[in-house]
Amino acid sequence: MLQHVWERASQARYLTSVIVATDDERIRDAAAGFHARVMMTRSDHASGTDRAAEVASASEAQVIVNIQGDEPLIDPAAIDAAVLGLLNDDDVPMGTLKKRIERETEIADPNLVKVVTDAHDNAIYFSRSPIPYLREAGGESAAYYKHIGLYVYRRDFLLNYSDLPVGPLEKAEKLEQLRALENGHKIRVVETEYESLGVDTPEDWGRVSALYEQIMAKI
């Protein structure tokens, strides 16, 4: 799975280097098996953002992309889109992705984070609840978007992110990205057609493996 993520991320046009960041020697050894660049990090990080910040602190890169290691079908074009969303506006320190929800059952799923954005594609809010709320039943339906957990950061912002105060919204929703919004920072949200398929269980891996085989059969 890790090799699939690394290979697909390496196809992104706007990434100059792909690094596997881990505190686990088993992951380090697996990554070395397919010649990936690996950086061992501290084991006491509270989040993936903190781990990415440690990697950034040892690099001169001015833009850092945090890609989850459990998304073996990550779309290189989606990575590029998120990067461009940040590069095109110097005033935005952080970027991510959204995907329009097509299955109605996902709207009320608290495990699926929703996002609403303004007219300039900046995040207004992220929530586990359905947003926006439709006050009048049977009225004009609104589009719902789910958040895709890929993040792009400007280096200085990432290095200082863990020092930002944790606010009541982040505590309530248990969503780390709300820290940026609560402290007045913009998050650029780019729409993508990429359907995030994270692997959290053996059953998830079975579904993703079957889908991968279908994709390869069409190539």
Tally the helices: 8
User: How far from one another are the termini?
Assistant: 20 Å
Strand content: 15-25%
- CATH architecture classification name: Alpha-Beta Complex
CATH fold-level topology: Spore Coat Polysaccharide Biosynthesis Protein SpsA, Chain A
Uncertain stretches of 5 or more adjacent residues = none
* Order of strands, widest sheet: 3-7-4-8
Structural class based on helices, strands and sheet pairing = alpha/beta
Helix content: 25-40%
How many strand elements? 8
Radius of gyration: 18 Å
Largest sheet: 4 strands, mixed
Instruction: Describe the global form.
Output: globular
CATH classification, class level? Alpha Beta
Q: Mean pLDDT, rounded to whole units?
A: 91
CATH superfamily: Spore Coat Polysaccharide Biosynthesis Protein SpsA, Chain A
Number of domains: 1
Order of helices and strands: HEHEHEHEEEEHHHEH
Description:
This protein is of the alpha/beta class. It has one domain (2-100, 148-218): Spore Coat Polysaccharide Biosynthesis Protein SpsA, Chain A. The protein contains 8 helices and 8 strands, in the order H-E-H-E-H-E-H-E-E-E-E-H-H-H-E-H. The protein has helices at residues 2-9, 25-33, 48-57, 76-87, 155-161, 168-173, 178-182, 202-218; strands at 19-22, 37-40, 63-66, 94-100, 114-117, 123-127, 145-154, 187-191. The strands form 3 sheets. Strands 3-7-4-8 form a 4-stranded mixed sheet, with helices on both faces. The protein has a two-stranded parallel ribbon with strand order 1-2. A hairpin with a 5-residue loop joins strand 5 (114-117) and strand 6 (123-127). Helix 3 (48-57) packs across helix 5 (155-161).
